[in-house]
Amino acid sequence: MWVVPAMPSQTALLIYYTAMYILFDTFFTLVNVPYIALTPELAPGYDERTSLHSYRMAFSIGFGLLGAVAPLAIVDAIAGAGVSGPALHSAYMVMATLLGLASVLPVWLVFAVVRTPGVSGPAHAWPGGFVSHGSQQQGFPDRRRRLFADLDAD
Q1: pTM of whole model > 0.90?
Q2: Are 111 and 121 in contact (CB under 8 A)?
Q3: Which of 28, 43, 72, 80 is 20 to 30 A from residue 143's alpha carbon, by CA?
Q4: Would you call 16 exposed, middle or buried from its count of C-beta atoms within 10 A (0-12, 13-18, 19+)?
Q5: Torsion sign, CA atoms 10, 11, 14, 19
Q6: CA distances from 11 to 7, 16, 96, 145 (A)
Q7: Residue-level pLDDT at 18
Q8: Residue in 132, 122, 120 with CA at minimum distance from that of residue 142
Q9: Sign of CA dihedral 19, 22, 25, 31
Q10: How many angstroms separate the CA atoms of 36 and 57, rounded?
Q11: Edge-to-edge strand order for the sheet containing 130-133?
């Protein structure tokens, strides 16, 4: 979304950016929903979940504010202030690449590091919603029962 493509009309540009936004929002959802769903898996108690969610939101807000300022600062650092034309275009492309890598690496890090408590080894998904961790299997009904038992305990 950092590049303005050469389009013959404003309508084509509108269609392009609408499609890019839908694509961005779809991929954001594909990453963010499982990421948020990790909270009850990592912190089984109510207070632990609240604390974990508070830290997650604090970092999200902080880096969101940084993200409002950082892109132009990076472009100015690469191309210099007041530059236009191809140099500015190249600076935006470098900035987009840097920020893209910076946003993907934490997701990969979470995927590589986070494991189900008490379970080692890779997980295998099976049809019907069952997840197998070695000899253990936990399906959706077991998760639901554990969730409601946790809510009753609080």
Answers
A1: no
A2: no
A3: 28
A4: middle
A5: negative
A6: 9, 9, 25, 52
A7: 94
A8: 132
A9: negative
A10: 11
A11: 124-126, 130-133, 136-138
pLDDT of residue 120: 56
Residue carrying the six token digits 């959706």: 140
Tell me the pLDDT of the chain (154 aa) as tens digits: 566 778 889 999 899 999 999 999 999 899 888 888 888 877 878 888 888 889 888 988 998 898 889 888 888 888 887 787 888 888 888 888 888 888 888 878 877 777 666 655 555 555 555 454 444 444 445 555 555 555 555 5
For 137, the token pair is 């299997």
